[in-house]
């Protein structure tokens, strides 16, 4: 058996704050890490933040702060959320840390030394949102991954000879079937690689926020090469310290990279190719989970449909969220989140099933046996019902363990809960409270056996589900008088270990039932969070807004009303780039934009909120009427008007743009 286990989460971009999508990945990894530790395996669990690249640079510009200030702030938020959630990471890597920069540059040098890097020029499209070079599409095309508009990039770059690795990669996917899981993702990757691989641009020279290419600081290293290498730099790759280098020897290759399904290509194609080129061992396994959906689409900041983990922590606690996500979502597939479903699961499975089992078993031991685990009758005197619980518990240990090992969390929990249900039924059928009323010896012996059996089953289920709901199980464990659950090792778990006469701890309810207001309270907390922190007075007092009227698409072009060129030239049309975009409170059609005209930044309020998410617009080049008199919309001054086609009966706005790259501030005539 392999006695070490190194596992990683993706490192998260710090352009936006964490939500329960990110939390999902970290919870899953935390469950795996805790279980490995309980199995006695030496475990290393890495998470962190991805802090370079154009997306971050622009997010900082949009907030008017330096990239370093932005990354410090948001990275700290991720970290403190993981601490509050009880995520037991062993290390948290930030790509702006010196240890990472040093190791990253070392990897770059190694790729260069091995002859897999050359200088060339890239001219093509780039998706800033995905930080992805988009091959084989023309200027102005949308990104095939996310649908956002790509930008034209034309610059001298360093290239990585990705094309040289197609055969080796296909060989890897065939010979190591567990390299990519689940199967659907593996098939996608195989067909992507079979479609042919082109060399990959791995540097940018038109912005600065990245790690400089060694000996050529005009270039910064492509953010995905930078980010992927965190998995080795964090454990000491490229470190001058012998101790850290031996750490790398100890932990690499990684046992499991856990990722979301949208970043499979980077992890399963680019990453192993970089490692092959560097002559380093390959990951043992990459697992891609599905998406957490909210209101039917992928939860993401740009869609504005996020739920924050903090809200759930405040109202129900971390275990409620952990249990819900692992029980409700079939691991690997997409799954929906809703507050109603969360509260329902919490009340039925945790407060009712497990909570009741724990509190009634422990309360009866306290009351009827003076807080000491009673002695069950000798085997011969036990009933088939007593034996059935013992047998079911033994089977549950085997089945749950196998399901956890296959990352079938939902089924593992379902199996554990079947034992809980069976014990609750057993208690009801054996009526220990009635046995306690009778004072004869045989009733007393029955009572002891029923309570021992229930407590022993409770102990077993508590140990099995501890990695999923660590706080509450730790409390049940200590109420059972067993001390610190983290010291318990799962391979030892078997029926009959609960010490006779063990003094149980103080009995307290572990899951107080969530009342009817829990859903409302969580929704309110989320609502408050979506509101801007401070609202300008003028906005609050402004009259209802009128949005630029739209002309129906079918309106014929007017003929009799022609204007002179001089009239047209009075209109100053200019190219502007969106720096900031946000919804205007209380006006569901309006966005407030700050646009850069090349030397001047202006505020524009535009009626396009139904067609565009604010984040989607950041960095986009648009056309504005620059010499329009300022006017006020919802109390906000709008200094110009943007141009958009008006489509369909509802006049859906579609922004004007360019197929080629154009400088900011250029005039249209
Ligand atoms: O992609 N459902 O960072 P990122 C499930 N920096 N998981 C979700 C999710 C959702 N709705 N939303 C986010 C990046 N995730 C890169 C990674 S790794 C070398 C670099 C989780 O901030 C999921 O794990 O966009 C997904 O892969 C990850 O967050 C993306 O985080």
Verbal overview:
The chain is of the alpha+beta class and 669 residues long. The strands form seven sheets. It has a six-stranded parallel sheet, sandwiched between helices. Helix 14 packs antiparallel against helix 15 and helix 14 runs parallel beside helix 17. About 4% of the residues have low confidence.
Label this structure with key terms:
single chain; 669 residues; alpha+beta; 22 helices
Structural class: alpha+beta
Largest β-sheet summary: 6 strands, parallel
Given as residue ranges, the uncertain stretches (5+ residues, pLDDT < 50) are 532-559
Give the terminus-to-terminus CA distance: 73 Å
What's the mean pLDDT score? 90
Quaternary assembly: single chain
Radius of gyration based on Cα positions: 30 Å
Treating each run of at least 4 consecutive H or I residues as one helix, how many helices? 22
Strand order within the widest sheet?
A: 3-2-1-12-13-7
Strand content: 15-25%
Helix content: 40-55%
Global morphology: globular
Number of strands: 26
Distinct ligand kinds = ligand ME8
Please give the structural blueprint.
Elements lengths: L3 E10 L6 H19 L3 E9 L3 H10 L3 H19 L5 E4 L3 H16 L3 E11 L4 E3 L16 E10 L5 H10 L4 E2 L1 H12 L5 E2 L1 E2 L7 E2 L2 E6 L1 H6 L1 H4 L8 H10 L4 E5 L3 H15 L7 E4 L2 E3 L2 E2 L10 H7 L2 H11 L6 E2 L2 H30 L15 H22 L3 H22 L1 H6 L3 H25 L4 H10 L37 H14 L6 H5 L23 H5 L3 E12 L2 E10 L4 E6 L7 H4 L3 E5 L5 E3 L2 E3 L2 E2 L1 E4 L4 E4 L11 E2 L1
Parallel strand pairs: 1-2, 1-12, 2-3, 7-13, 12-13, 14-16
Antiparallel strand pairs: 4-5, 4-6, 6-8, 9-11, 10-11, 14-15, 17-18, 17-20, 17-26, 18-19, 20-23, 21-22, 24-25
Helix pairs in contact: 2-3, 5-6, 6-10, 11-19, 12-13, 13-15, 13-17, 14-15, 14-17, 15-17, 17-18
This protein binds ligand ME8.
The site of ligand ME8 has 21 residues, from β1, α1, α7 and β12.
